Amino acid sequence: QVQLQESGPGLVKPSQTLSLTCTVSGGSISSGSYYWSWIRQPPGKGLEWIGYIYHSGSTYYNPSLKSRVTISVDRSKNQFSLKLSSVTAADTAVYYCARGAVAAWFDPWGQGTLVTVSS
Amino acid sequence: SYVLTQPPSVSVAPGKTARITCGGNNIGSKSVHWYQQKPGQAPVLVIYYDSDRPSGIPERFSGSNSGNTATLTISRVEAGDEADYYCQVWDSSSDYVVFGGGTKLTVL
Q1: Do A105 and B48 touch (CB under 8 A)?
Q2: For residues B102 and B87, is the Cβ–Cβ distance under 8 A?
Q3: What Å distances lie between residue B86 and A5, A23, A66, A98, B98, CA to CA?
Q4: What average pLDDT does this structure show over B61-72?
Q5: pLDDT digit string, tens, across residues B71-84
Q6: Within 13 Å of residue A53, how many CA atoms lie on the same side as its CB?
Q7: Is the CB of residue B11 less than 8 Å away from at least one CB of chain A?
Q8: Which residues of A are less than 8 Å from B48 in CB distance?
């Protein structure tokens, strides 16, 4: 079955750009009607949708983050990526990647990776 | 933007029925999805499209959605059901995904 795994630096300095990659295994990122998604969870808090990308490259972003977010896809590597610019301590969170059904649910999710913003 | 409201906590004795609500303006017109998240783990989809269960999810988990409230019902609650539960919708008017604030289920 499809599995997702996040990777990237666990520590980012304030004002810099957070970069994460999600590797998809057990299925092609180009097959099916799925949106490949990023969701985050600050420590002790709830879930926040960041955005997602269709394999064609179409993207949808959370309006509150839209000015700082870029999600891209690399079909040759079966990966999709997140870039979040000008980070602050408020961006400290566990970042999850997930497969999303069109305008619907998210399943499965990656295990998540903690990114801390600190100097 | 669309807002989903969940109670912060629900407590239930083992073997009883837990009901976790998710309130939103005319939420009955939207499809609601529910996730279970245990400490240190990623969320897991337990109900989709209001009341469908993914394979592997026990029949004890069920969902309903009408009017301004969607409900996740867990029958015959077990200690292993203790977790945070989140509802989620897709707000088609703005192409935006919304999560509820989450409910901590405590099994007494």
Answers
A1: yes
A2: no
A3: 22, 25, 23, 15, 10
A4: 98
A5: 999 999 999 999 99
A6: 21
A7: no
A8: 101, 104-105, 107
